Structures are given as C-alpha cells and as structure tokens.
Amino acid sequence: MRATCRSGFRLVALALVSSVVALGGVRLHAQQGPAPAAGSQGLFWTVEKDGRTSWLVGSLHLLTADAYPLPASMLAAFAQADTLVEEADPDELTSPDVASQLMAKAFYPPGRSLQTELSAGAYRRVVDKASKAGLPAVALDRMKPWMIAITLAALELQRGGFDPALGIDKHFLDRARTAGKRTRTFEAALDQIGFLEALSPQMQEALVGETLDGTETELSQMRRIAAAWKAGDAAVVEQLLVDTMKDSPGIYQALVVDRNRRWMPALTGCFATARCFVVVGAAHLVGPDGLVAMLTAQGYRVRQR
Fold first, then answer.
1. CA distance 149 to 131
2. How far does the chain reach from its first CA to its final CA, in angstroms?
3. Under a CB-based contact definition with an 8 Å cutoff, are residues 237 and 286 in contact?
C-alpha cells in the first residue's frame, strides 16, 4: 500500500504541482543551477502523415537551469509550427472565477480544517515538517490533505533547484505568445486537479504520510528523471514514470491512459489542419499506452529526434 501510494503520487505531484502550488501561495525562488553548458537533447519526435509534419515534445513541468539551452532542432521545429498545443493553460488559474473554484476544491470551508480531518499523529508530523520549512501551521490548516502533499513535495523540489518557471511547457507557451502563434489546450486547468480532489480521505492521508516520509526520495527520483530527459532517453523515462505508475492501475488508468484517449481526436485533428507543436508531460508520450504508440497504430510515422 505504501509503495503503491508513493509511485502513484510521484507522477501526480510532478504533473500538477507547477499550477497548483502557485495559487496555494507556496512559491520559492529556486536555487540557481549550474551555468548552462551543452544543454539537453530532450524528448522530441517528428510526426508525419499524408505529407504533413508536426512535432511532439515530452515536457517536465519543473526543471533546472542546466536543461537549457534546448536543442537547436527542437527550436527550429517550433519556429516552423503555426500552432502550439499543451495540456492546459496555467493562466486560466489567475482569473478570479477559476481561482475561486480552485480555492473551494483545495481548501476546507469554515468549520473544518486539517487538524479536524487528519489523525492526530499525521497532523503533528505536518506541523513539524511545515515549521522546519518555515511555514506557519496556520498557513496550512485550511488546506486539504492532497494540497498539503503537493505543497510539501513542491517545497522540496524547488529547494533542489526544480522550478515550474523552467518547465518545458511554460517555456514554449511564453515563446508562442511572444511570436503570435495560435495556442490550443486539451483540458481546462481545473480538470487537472479533479483526480486529486476525488481521492478518498484515507488515500489523501496516505499521500500526506508518503510525502512526509519520502521528500528526499522524491527529489532523488526527480533528478534521475531529469537526467534521462536531458539525455533523450525515452526508455529510462518510461521506466521511472510509467512503470512505477502501473503499480497503481487505477491511478495509471485515470491519469495517463484515459486522458491520452480523450486527447487523441483533438491531436489528430490538429495534425490534419495545421503544423502543430505539441508539448505534454513526458509520461503521456512513452510506453505502450502513450501517444507515440497510439499515433503509430493509426498510421503516423513517428520518429524520435
């Protein structure tokens, strides 16, 4: 149970933390990484069918400064594209209406609090961890357990130099807006936290416990994932992200497989009408249920660059 929770949470946190943490009020200045040298190869595919060419990029939503510069071939492909497609637009979360909805999902209403909902032992551990991180307990007491788990994981990752401002999706969204390219998304920003909100109270408390136990492990794992991403090693990324998720079949099905299937009509529709540069989490591209495999099965020629 504990290993299963941890492997499932790992991908959830990495996928969602960049958008949720900013609104949760926990935003650290990431430590500066080493000066960029050779940059990265990244995870990057060319997609061809019926004389049309588009591109897929596997994103890590948090990265360190030494992931840049990105490969010249990736930047050249982006320059050729007329449409950027990403999972969701994080700027949706800055609108007052959506921010209000997120707060309602992530925070308890008056009369309920983390102290009333968690076991006494788990609550004491959260307070102790928050205090060591420089966060007063009052800042966390209204957060639901899944939000606490994400917040604590984010603090550790950002202290390790992993910053959502350096994520690949953020990088290309900013460039697309500057260049005046069209942008599309597969989901609404709030859709991305629906999975966490739906977790049972028992599973949410288990996630908090795993986060308290495993922050150093999560940082070590993130470093391994980032190193594989920089090397363009899709097989290792699959092993570290996808294979661990399969230990929790329900989590894997909901977070990866079902979403990939929902995205496919919009993805192939974009490929048929535009030169699309598609940036989604790396776990959505690799493995037998990934978008690369799905596109190949539909007759697309998909080549890793």
1. 15
2. 39
3. yes
pLDDT tens readout for residues 127-161:
888 887 777 878 788 888 888 887 877 777 888 88
d(CA 81, CA 261): 24
d(CA 298, CA 305): 20
Q: Quick: pLDDT tens for 201-246.
A: 777 777 777 777 766 677 888 899 999 999 999 999 999 888 877 8
